[in-house]
């Protein structure tokens, strides 16, 4: 088959862009499928490409997420109040900034992936700098969340003791807040070029250092919240500085040609796609925040919040695998659309959907079989352990839906459908999931289980709707849209 992506691409002024060959990930469009054997041939071929991207990204995500989980595990063996405080800061205060900054960074994921597929390598570095400007500007505006966390939680009528401790911890976590604003664009920039092995290696070193230093400061020296903050901040800036040095030292070739004043031009056009992505992701992350807040209103809030945080952490572990699929399919869809191979993009959706669903099902089955044992890993409190055990079936269903949904998110990011998915999320979560959860949890006295029913409804409807959209899209038209978008943004 002729490799179309090796042909030089002329810009509007008839100059040839410097090209870097895409490693054998994009071998053109898929071949005709006329039999079951043809289907499985293409399925395994596409699976190989997805896992090439997904496996290192999954390891990277699990390692980084593991730093936070290890901190919570250490705190859970020190004090129920400290565990609840870290959980409240993580799932309420930080989730607002992480959702917004992570969503804004997803706009970069769309543009870098499509530009790389179309061989406009010179645009990637400019996009990266635009994203840094936007995310750090927003991060400055969000600092008040961390400075006034106690007052915000008190205003939301959370447990006073938890609010005070969570506020202390939030103020100490401001350095991590800015590290995240730097990391998200770096990660998207490197993922678009399939440079994922290096990121996985950095994350592996980081989690090992974090585990050792956290154990010393929190378990041996008993530094509590201060020790947790010191270790987390140090780990996150290590994770940022290593890839940053790779990029600015010329490691990415034509994708980075140094800092440029062009990064300040037409920021609003770039921001529009970024804010659509942010709203898409924030609606889901803020639903988890709403669940945590609602748990704080239940009887015995320390136990409820702590149990929910353990479940959400386990869901987060599996979600890191889902996010690995998310990143891989985003790169595959954006690269294939950018290089003019719409049939390959559509087939990638089928492969990633089946793979992510199967993974979620296996993880959920293991949790159900081990539901009497695993809660003891997170806490010594018997009440919390029993509540986590009782919530495990809900957790299992959530994991299955979350894995599928994360993969489908990657499809929407790669194709640039953030606006549409923002509306879908609003309908599924704000207008259906949240009201049902509140109604069942408080009106019908179902407690945390009722709140969780609302989450499951939102997840199911959202995943089903995005899947229907993806199956019914005209992918040839989507490829034309990508070319038009790159032409427009190429003038920025």
UniProtKB/TrEMBL annotation:
- Cellular component annotations (GO), alphabetically ordered: membrane
- Pfam families reported for this sequence: MatE
Please give the start and end residues of each transmembrane region. Answer: 50-71, 91-111, 132-153, 173-190, 197-216, 236-261, 273-298, 347-369, 390-408, 420-442, 451-470
Q: How does it sit in the membrane?
A: Multi-pass membrane protein
Q: Which UniProt keywords apply?
A: Membrane, Transmembrane, Transmembrane helix
Q: Where in the cell is it found?
A: Membrane
Major place of residence: membrane
Q: Which InterPro entries match?
A: MATE_euk (IPR045069), MATE_fam (IPR002528)
User: What processes does the entry annotate via GO biological process terms?
Assistant: xenobiotic detoxification by transmembrane export across the plasma membrane
Q: Extract one GO molecular function annotation from the record.
A: xenobiotic transmembrane transporter activity
Source organism's superkingdom? Eukaryota
Similarity comment: Belongs to the multi antimicrobial extrusion (MATE) (TC 2.A.66.1) family.
Which NCBIfam families does the entry mention?
Answer: matE (TIGR00797)
Q: What is this protein called?
A: Protein DETOXIFICATION
Q: What organism, scientifically named, is this protein from? A: Oldenlandia corymbosa var. corymbosa
């Amino acid at each position: 088959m002729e490799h179309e992506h090796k042909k030089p691409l002329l810009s509007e002024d008839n100059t040839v862009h410097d090209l870097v060959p895409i490693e054998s990930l994009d071998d053109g469009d898929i071949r005709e499928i006329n039999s079951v054997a043809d289907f499985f041939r293409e399925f395994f071929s596409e699976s190989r490409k997805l896992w090439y991207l997904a496996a290192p990204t999954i390891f990277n995500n699990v390692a980084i997420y593991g730093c936070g989980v290890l901190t919570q595990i250490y705190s859970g063996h020190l004090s129920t109040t400290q565990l609840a405080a870290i959980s409240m800061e993580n799932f309420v205060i930080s989730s607002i900034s992480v959702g917004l900054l992570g969503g804004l960074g997803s706009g970069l994921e769309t543009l870098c992936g499509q530009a790389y597929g179309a061989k406009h390598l010179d645009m990637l570095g400019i996009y990266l700098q635009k994203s840094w400007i936007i995310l750090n500007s927003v991060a400055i505006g969000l600092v008040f969340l961390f400075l006034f966390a106690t007052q915000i939680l008190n205003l939301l009528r959370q447990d006073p003791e938890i609010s005070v401790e969570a506020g202390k911890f939030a103020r100490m976590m401001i350095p991590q807040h800015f590290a995240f604003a730097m990391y998200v664009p770096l990660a998207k920039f490197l993922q678009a070029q399939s440079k994922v092995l290096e990121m996985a290696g950095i994350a592996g070193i980081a989690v090992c250092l974090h585990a050792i230093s956290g154990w010393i400061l929190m378990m041996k020296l008993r530094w509590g919240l201060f020790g947790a903050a010191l270790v987390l901040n140090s780990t996150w800036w290590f994770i940022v500085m290593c890839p940053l040095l790779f990029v600015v030292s010329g490691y990415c070739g034509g994708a980075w040609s140094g800092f440029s004043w062009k990064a300040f031009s037409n920021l609003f056009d770039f921001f529009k796609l970024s804010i659509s992505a942010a709203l898409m992701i924030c609606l889901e992350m803020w639903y988890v925040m709403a669940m945590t807040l609602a748990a704080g209103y239940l009887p015995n809030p320390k136990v409820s919040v702590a149990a929910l945080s353990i479940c959400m952490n386990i869901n987060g572990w599996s979600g890191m695998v889902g996010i690995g699929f998310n990143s891989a399919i985003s790169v595959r869809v954006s690269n294939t659309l950018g290089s003019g191979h719409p049939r390959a993009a559509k087939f990638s959706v089928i492969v990633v959907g089946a793979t992510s669903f199967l993974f979620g099902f296996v993880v959920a089955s293991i949790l159900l079989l081990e539901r009497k044992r695993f809660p003891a890993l997170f806490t010594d409190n018997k009440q919390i352990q029993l509540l986590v055990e009782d919530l495990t079936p809900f957790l299992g269903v959530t994991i299955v839906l979350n894995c599928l949904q994360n993969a489908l998110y990657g499809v929407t990011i790669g194709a640039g459908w953030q606006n549409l998915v923002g509306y879908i999320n609003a309908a599924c979560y704000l207008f259906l999931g949240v009201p049902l959860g509140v109604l069942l949890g408080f009106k019908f006295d179902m407690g945390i289980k009722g709140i969780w029913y609302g989450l499951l409804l939102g997840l199911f409807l959202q995943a089903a709707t995005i899947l229907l959209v993806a199956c019914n899209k005209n992918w040839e038209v989507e490829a034309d849209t990508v070319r038009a978008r790159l032409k427009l943004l190429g003038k920025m």
